[in-house]
Specification:
369 residues, alpha+beta, five-stranded mixed β-sheet, four-stranded antiparallel β-sheet, 14 strands, elongated
């Protein structure tokens, strides 16, 4: 089955699906270079006192990223440690009470045994016997009470130890550390701003190993083998490309939209139409997809009706089939993709329109697969 190429036209730009390379040109394509990224978030709340790394700085695993205000936590920790000293003293006092109660119980037991032997010989009366028995019982009860008091003191000490552990953890969380070795590629907070639990602090990318997914037409894909080397140009001005290795080849075909250079309009609308029709014919497009800017409720506004007039005029001079595709929120999605790709603000504007047009075409391709 032969797959026809598509062209997308919109008020933002024009996008084509590229054809196969010529035989004397090695297989190639384009894609986004990706890396493992980690966003470090705050586990403590407070004012950020310092941030030790800037965007572009290299950071090692375990490095302290910054410091969040520790005054409140430090004061609570000092108070808890003082309470622990008091609890330790309480445990010691309760332990001594248990020992004293045990001694008193032993003495009361011996006295009670002596009186029991004397009452048989008539040397003591019943009142003395009852008094000694009562003293024995009270000594036993006092021993039980002393043990309960010791358990309560030990429980209070354990509670304070747990509180100290929590506070020490909170204190440590005021010094967030990097979980990875890499490059700081984004900062989400500035020194002096308030950090809340869960607030993102920095984004770290591991650049020791990156990958790029490249889409190729079938005629180029047949010349690719797993394990073979590939040159990657990150388009950062370097003269020598990076050398990578092919580690994965998809077993399923995918449709992929990719932008060409934006078409620069002229002052002649007729000339623009003829140029676009000629461009579509040059790329042997089977279909032209035009973005339709509907209102958010799905209704057609003034701009959508202007696009429909444009489609009718283009169809009048072109034999290629033309379809319209909903382009709502494609510019917003394009901006989000560029932000996630850490594209600088000054570069986003010139890329946004082409990417939005690409999203329109990709949406159409996906709907046809």
């Amino acid at each position: 089955m032969r797959i026809k190429q598509l062209i997308i036209l919109s008020i933002f730009g024009i996008v084509f699906v590229q054809s196969c390379n010529h035989k004397d040109v090695p297989p190639g394509g384009s894609g986004f270079i990706e890396a493992t990224e980690v966003i470090v978030s705050s586990e403590a709340a407070g004012r950020l006192e310092s941030l030790n790394f800037d965007e572009g700085d290299r950071i090692q695993s375990g490095d302290t990223i910054g410091m969040i205000d520790t005054v409140t936590t430090a004061l609570r920790l000092t108070s808890a440690k003082a309470a622990r000293l008091a609890a330790e003293a309480g445990c010691e006092a309760a332990g001594l009470s248990v020992k004293q109660a045990s001694i008193n119980y032993d003495l009361a037991g011996k006295e009670f045994d002596r009186v029991k032997s004397l009452i048989k010989s008539g040397s003591v009366n019943r009142q003395q016997y009852d008094k000694t028995e009562n003293a024995y019982n009270l000594a036993e009860l006092a021993g039980l009470q002393a043990k309960v008091s010791l358990s309560a003191a030990e429980a209070e000490l354990a509670r304070i130890d747990a509180e100290i552990a929590i506070l020490e953890d909170q204190r440590d969380n005021c010094f967030p550390v990097s979980p990875e070795t890499g490059i700081v590629i984004d900062k989400y907070i500035k020194t002096g701003e308030l950090a809340s639990i869960g607030k993102s602090l920095v984004k770290i990318a591991r650049l020791d190993e990156v990958w790029v997914k490249v889409y190729l037409p079938p005629c180029d894909l047949s010349g690719i083998q797993l394990g073979s080397e590939a040159e990657v140009d990150p388009e950062d001005g370097r003269e020598t490309p990076l050398i990578g290795k092919v580690t994965w080849i998809s077993d399923e075909a995918e449709f992929l939209a990719r932008p060409l250079d934006p078409y620069q309009r002229t002052h002649s609308f007729r000339k623009d139409l003829e140029s676009l029709a000629r461009l579509a014919q040059e790329f042997k497009a089977g279909t032209i997809v035009v973005g339709l800017p509907l209102n958010m409720d799905g209704s057609k506004g003034e701009m959508a009706m202007e696009v429909e007039k444009f489609v009718a005029q283009l169809q009048a001079i072109s034999k290629i089939s033309i379809v319209v595709s909903d382009e709502r929120l494609t510019s917003v999605e394009a901006e989000r993709v560029l932000l996630e790709g850490n594209v600088k603000r000054k570069d986003r504007k010139q890329l946004r329109d082409g990417l939005a047009a690409t999203l329109i075409l990709q949406g159409y391709l996906d709907s046809q697969s």
